[in-house]
Amino acid sequence: MAYETVLFDVSERICTITLNRPERLNAWTRQMHLDLKDAMHRAGSDPDVRAIILTGAGRGFCAGADMGGLQAIGSGASADRSTKAQDGLPGGSTLPEFRMNYSYFPAIPKFIIAAINGPAAGLGMVIPLYADLRFAAESAVFTTAFAQRGLIAEHGVSWLLPRLVGLPTALDLLCSARKFRAPEALAMGLVNRVIPDDRLLAEARAYATLLANTVSPRSVAVMKRQLWEAQFQTLAEATVQANHEMELSFQTSDFKEGVAHYLEKRAARFTGK
User: Fold this and answer.
1) Where are the domains of the chain?
2) Which GO terms describe its molecular function (predicted)?
3) What pTM value is reported for the model?
4) pLDDT digits over 62-75, tens only?
């Protein structure tokens, strides 16, 4: 299946999804929203995919909402601000918080790595925050941008950003809308690694390969769900859930394989079952 605004590629159990409007720095449109959501769910439901990389074509990751769309809204056109929960995927979180229009990445039962290859502004900065890891090119520049457009902290970023960087830093980034570069993003905890531009996708793919070849995809899906859902749980609730999930794990083929490949000193052959 071909998409209008994203590229979709699966190779060696890794799915690479690329925002593909390079002539507009991959500025966000309604069609891109639909294409990305379909591509993510397609990768999430494919048993041959073990990890997902999200990146941008050309010299930018995503410059935020397309200005033509914002101009139309300012002229009276309606904006899509749906709060209706979307259908989830087997193995992913069923919490309604992770089934909203833009917050659905945590409900995808595959590990998602955002490879931020250039400018990431507004919604283009928010989207990778929902990924499980963020790798940034050295040249990447970030800005929340909302306050410079007369807008507010959209798409759940007021909940997510303070959990990543702390409340004072979130207030700074949102209210000033200042630009900041990849090294500062790393220092504040917004990204996990800063990588030379020409090595970004190779490093992201190396990490995805580690996930694809050496760990149980079932374990990854369950732990991803546990960690995201724990943001809404007490310690007691998280512990009860963990005890239940451990009992289920003992019954799986991946548990048996995890013990066997260690004892037999060979590469693992996990099936996700």
Assistant:
1) 6-211, 233-263
2) enoyl-CoA hydratase activity
3) 0.91
4) 999 987 655 444 44
